[in-house]
Structure formats: C-alpha cells, structure tokens
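Quick question, first post here. What does this chain look like in 3D?
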Amino acid sequence: MSRGRPEYLAAALGAVAIVLGPATAAAQSVPDDTGLDFFRPPPNLFQLQYGYRTAPGDTRDVTTQTLNFRYDHAFDLTPTWILVTRSDLPLVAKNTINSGNPNGSYLYGVGDADIQAAFIHNLDKRWAVGFGARLIAPTGEDPLGSGKWRVMPIVGFRVALPEISASSYFEPIFRYDESVAGDPTRRNISNLQFGPALNIGLPDRWFVTFYPSQDIRVNFGDPVTGQTGRLFLPFDARFGKKLSDNVAASLELGVPIIRDYPVYNFKGQFRLNVTW
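> Answer (accepted):
Ran it through. Tokens below.
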C-alpha cells in the first residue's frame, strides 16, 4: 500500500451483481442496446470501471476512488439454462484518517477481490429468473478492504418491456452481504441490498437506467460512522450509449434520499464495457 496524490488514480483511468440471461435463439433476437444487461450476458465481457465516492468519516468525509477490472464468462448448459461467472479486481485510493495515517493522505493498494457465479433460466422471450452467489476475499489492507471473508447470495428476475422499446426491461435484484470469517477486530457485515433496475432503451443506442446498482441497503450488522437507523435509500441513475456492437460506455450517479445508514454522500461511476 502506498501514499500519493488522488490524481494518479484518476489519471490511470485515462485510459454490474449477476442475475439472469436467456440462452435461446428466440430470446437473443431481442436486441440489447445497453451493453450492460446481466440477464442477456454475452459469452465474454471485460469492464473497466472508475468510481468516485464520498462517505462520512470519524472527523471528516472520506473519499474513495476505485479502478476496477472485471471479467465475465458465460457457459451455455442447456437451451434454457446458462452459467455466468464473474471476477473483480479493484485498485483503491482512500484518504481515511486513522492511527497509521494521521494526516489523511491517500493510501493506494488492492481492495477486496471477488468471484461470482450465477445460474440463469430463460422462461420465455419476456421472463427470466436466476440465482447465484459471490465470494469476497479480504485481499485489501486496512483501510482499503473490509478485513472479512464475505458471502453474498443473489436472486432476481427480469421482465422485458418491448411495449416501451426493444431494449427496455425491469430487473429487480436482491443480494445479502454477510461476513463469515476474517479479522475479529473489524466490523461485522450483514446487510440486505436491493436494486429495482428499470432500463429504458432510447433512440440511437442511448439508454437510461434507474437504480442499476443494488444501492438500497438495510443494515443488520455492526453500525458504521454516522449511522442513526438501518435504511439507506438513494436516487441512483445511469446514462449511457452503445458505441458499437461490442463497446458500451455509461456514467452512473447516486445521491442519498434517506441516509440513516450512510453508505455514501455521493457516488459517481464510469464504465466501459467490451464484449465478444
């Protein structure tokens, strides 16, 4: 873990939970112009994501910048079942003030990496359901990682909305983030996460998605700094465009509406997806 200026991570940029996806030829005939649809996964996906987030700290707000590398691979099991795997490697910069960093300088290093698998079942051209789990490893040093091994079960469904446009859909996803082992001195994690994603396909391959991430949270674990209740309810939206058949870019912004359980004060994420 190294110290430095936050601009370095942002300069490095210079350069979604899994759920469902049909595998039948009929379902694949419905175009996905977002390039971000977990229910209709491509065989391979590489995603470069840069995130900027502020959250309450003990003495001041803490800023976290993350450059995340993600890779997905889908396996056709039967004409209606598919297995999708995912792995994430986050590089993190964070300016937490603690005993080892009293000046609040930016600390740099690897965050908590994860692997994920989901089984997806295509019911018909409109409906799909699925379930999976993510394993999160404590690969990040304090304060860049949680210090805990975590398991995250995932379940959800998708309904296509061709009445709006060919690439519109409603995709609610539930996850439960639970720490199961790790540093006993670190905060225990136990919270429900929900994202009722509503994607609206727009002309010229533009799209807007409301609640694309599972940022609605109910905390049943140890309290965090500034917590007064259990609920975090943000306004969260993503805007993007499919630049080509294999490349899509998007920008997601989130701000709190109810912050009794303060996940963030502000969130911004840029994603670049490449599929093949």
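The first strand starts at residue 2 and ends at 4.
The radius of gyration is 19 Å.
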